[in-house]
Amino acid sequence: MPRSVNSVASRARRKKVLKQAKGFFGRRKNVWTVAKNAVEKAMQYAYRGRKEKKRNFRSLWITRINAGARVHGMSYSQFMGALKKNNIELNRKVLADLAMNHPEAFKAVVDQVK
């Protein structure tokens, strides 16, 4: 019995990877073996980047809350401690948005915890 290769599926798999490599420089975009490695590495970077993005945004929110709290004479840690003590459950994303775009609302929150 002759060997079955299923070249349709093989070509589809290769085409999928080469399509993902679109925009890469040099042989990384059109040579199968090079493109496969480049796409695998890119996927690893993308996975890691999705985790890093969460860290970066949390850091940004903390910086904004700190700046907003210091305008009203509190440090970030004092402000967050007072929020917890007064059972105000606003997350950092919302607090950062208030501090940045709605300073009067943020002042109301600070006055409530003081």
Explain what this protein looks like in three dimensions.
This is Large ribosomal subunit protein bL20. Belongs to the bacterial ribosomal protein bL20 family. One of its GO terms (cellular component) is ribosome. By secondary structure, the protein is mostly helical. The chain contains five helices and no strands. α1 packs parallel to α2, α2 packs across α4 and α4 packs across α5. It starts with 6 loop residues before the first helix and ends with a helix.
Overview features:
RNA-binding, 114 residues, mainly alpha
Question: Between the first and last Cα atoms, what is the distance in angstroms?
Answer: 84 Å
Helical region count? Answer: 5
User: How much of the residues is beta strand, in percent?
Assistant: under 5%
H/E order of the elements? HHHHH
Profile the largest sheet: none
Oligomeric state of shown chains: single chain
Structural class computed from helices and strand pairing: mainly alpha
Average pLDDT figure: 96
Overall form: rod-shaped
- Low-pLDDT residue spans: none
Q: C-alpha Rg, in Å?
A: 26 Å
Q: Please report the total strand number as a whole number.
A: 0
Helix content: over 70%
